[in-house]
Amino acid sequence: MQRNRRPLNPEHQLSHLPMSGIIKARIKRLFLILGGLLITQIMIIWAAEDLSLFESTWMTMTTLVTVGYGDFAPETYVGRISTIVVMFVSAITLLTLIVSDYIEYRFYRRERILTGRWVYAMKDHIVIINTPKTGGEQYFSRFASQIRAVPSYETVPIMILTRHFTNGLPTELSDNGLVHFHGSGSDPAALKAVHAGSARHIIVLAADEADPSSDSLTFDIAHRLSESNLGQKVTVECVRDENRDRFTAVGVRTVIRPVRTYPEIMVRSVVAPGSEKVLEDLFNYQHDHPHRYEIDLDDLTWADIVSALIRHGIGTALAYIDDNNDVICHPPTDQEIEGKGLIVLVKSSETPDVGVVEEALARYREFIKKWHDLQDQAAEEEAIAERAENR
């Protein structure tokens, strides 16, 4: 049995160090040695040959890269021997080793990126922890397209911290600029690797949107982030509404329900905190809900309709249905509306019937008519007074 056998490669002695650091340190060391050899060769040629410093440097460099223009060549024995020993034997060999190490480093980096073990230098990015149990690729793709449509978020980097995608991110995601790191949000080393402390936003997805027990894992991650004073950057998904107070108690900024088919809700909660509450209410019947009223619209502006409904405590107008059955959201406020229906955000416990809405619009028409009459009367009185002054 052989003992004290030397390893084939120096990095085998340093298995506790990252391979990228070993390779880069070796390349740096080889470059320093190569630089010393080149300076030595330049000085020898400058002293031994009838060449200027620039011509000596030029000949040394063309020899190193094996171009061999032939415009300059060593003529003395000293110059030729130094070229053989320093350049042919040593310098060109070192350059080959440097190129080989660089190629090795590129292959190593590619393999680490593919398997999610490359640590990127990121700042002001979005970290997404966990992957949806199903449809993760589609969810991340839609999330990225939606977040990139928001002003000032067009080029924001997105990092996924997950144990999925062990064979690399799907092309659709990598082409959109998403990267991933293989790990768990409950691992402090993984949170450090994704630079959670430098992130603009941190999103913690529910590991299983249908399993209430996944809230425990989410809470553990949220608690770790809060211990690092990152709670105000965190948006979490909570399966059971009863657990929301737990997340709020540890300083989490936003808590929402898992909505896999609409990542737009997550985008809204990230870029406009608070708006997710409005969007969530649209999907339940407990507090507020959008209600459709079949009603003819023909002589009021959108501003009039909105004001009429709010003044009478009915709700907030969200959209109207035109004569082609198209739903028109956020129409011009000063344009008269022609349609056959309204969609209004109303209280679920006190949903007004269509008669109340019609009455509110009729009263507002009377109010507008009286207001216009008063405006016309005031204008007429002003005109009379002006004519009297001119006499």
Automatic annotation (TrEMBL):
InterPro entries: K_chnl_dom, NAD(P)-bd_dom_sf, RCK_N, Trk_Ktr_HKT_K-transport. It is a multi-pass membrane protein. Gene3D superfamilies: 1.10.287.70, NAD(P)-binding Rossmann-like Domain. Its main location: membrane. The chain crosses the membrane at residues 30-48, 81-103. It comes from the Bacteria. Residues 36-100 form the Potassium channel domain. Residues 172-258 form the RCK N-terminal domain. Keywords: Ion channel, Ion transport, Membrane, Transmembrane, Transmembrane helix, Transport. This is Potassium channel family protein. It comes from Marinobacter azerbaijanicus.
